[in-house]
Amino acid sequence: MENKPNNELKRTLGFGSAISIVVGTIIGSGIFFKQASILDSAGSSTMAILTWIVGGIITLTAGLTVAEIGAQMPYTGGLYVYIENLYGRICGFLAGWMQVIVYGPAIMAAVAGFMSIMMTNLFGIGKEWRIPIALITILAIGIMNFFENKVGAAFSVITTIGKMIPIAAIITFGIFWGHQDAFGQTVSEVNRNSGGFGVAVLATLFGYDGWILIANLGGEMKNPQKLLPKAIIVGISTVLVIYTLISIGIFRFMPADLIHRLGENTTSYLAVKAFGNIGGKLLSIGIIISMMGTLNGKMITFPRIVYAMARRGDLPFSRYLSYVTPKGKSPVIATIFLIVLAAIMMLFFDPDHLSDLCVFTVYCFYLMAFFGVFILRKKNKERPFSVPLYPIVPIIAIGGGIFVLISELFNDPSGVLLFIGIVILGLPIFYAVKRMDKKRMKP
């Protein structure tokens, strides 16, 4: 399993595949399962819809800012590569470590957990089957990604097309056949329990999560300097419009107090009520396919971060983690590694809690990347892509990132400290790996 010079990933991804991965990775469980928790935190249907718009704007400004950076660093590894080039080796390692040990496994576990809720509701089986179903799904999608990246990309295209059916159904039925007022349903109807607008926005960012993962495939895109910014901008803008319309459709069809009572089962209830038992089941299957597409997108991208770090010798057992299959050039050991970590996360955290914590953790490093655009502007006068309305857009991204961190810190300080502690734990591991490398190099 030695990392030979020709042991490289293939540049086979075009614009269509890139857009499908962005949209397919973003649209998954968040928009379908976060409506009730966002409503409870926001306090009214109007504010809940506004949080999806604000979350989308924050994400779009973040995407535009990172697109300028990514166009100048079109390599496999994404955020890990950006942070290292901007701030040095140790900061880069921590960015990669965060994604490999905390963010990646947590986000995959959260999506699989939400999907298993939908599947148990669909088949009418007990809650005790949620974790086994989630584990089997992660394993199955992981095995599919043992093959060439074209296989996973093709699955992303198929699931992205497939997920548009339930999305179009919810939007159309809710807006045109709903009898509720989407705006103006008050706090008294939902018995607001905790959080606030900031926590609600944080929850929407889980729904928008995944936009940066296409950057991890920079080394596998045919023309990353041009395709990467386009894929990020078009993908995020499309999702922002879709999410806003879905939220309006749901509030048009269901009163806020009912959404509050149903919680995570809101979408399943809506599917059956709107389209009957058979139609509801078909719609639920479409939503499950949507979440499988999201999970697949993450399964494509996160092992590339492990691969990029292992190629540098930054991880224990890098020789094995950097292995790619001779024919398909797929990082199979890295994929297995992430499946195991995601399974562990799934056993110890509930999906809703995981989703908020992993968004907080990744935004710590997003903020560093946002500031990095100012650093690169001083160094590089010519760029393949320039963020529009500079410096307003990066400043909005920075402000949004700070807003996210402060909100979650006040909402869940113990969870925040736990995840920060896991990230900091990477420092002694980094130095231990480097000491071992020096010993091996000695004659």
From TrEMBL:
GO terms for molecular function: L-amino acid transmembrane transporter activity. Keywords: Membrane, Transmembrane, Transmembrane helix. The keyword DNA-binding does not apply. The chain crosses the membrane at residues 12-33, 45-69, 90-117, 129-147, 154-177, 197-219, 231-254, 274-295, 331-348, 354-376, 388-410, 416-433. It is a multi-pass membrane protein. The keyword Lyase does not apply. It is found in: Membrane. Its main location: membrane. This is Amino acid permease.
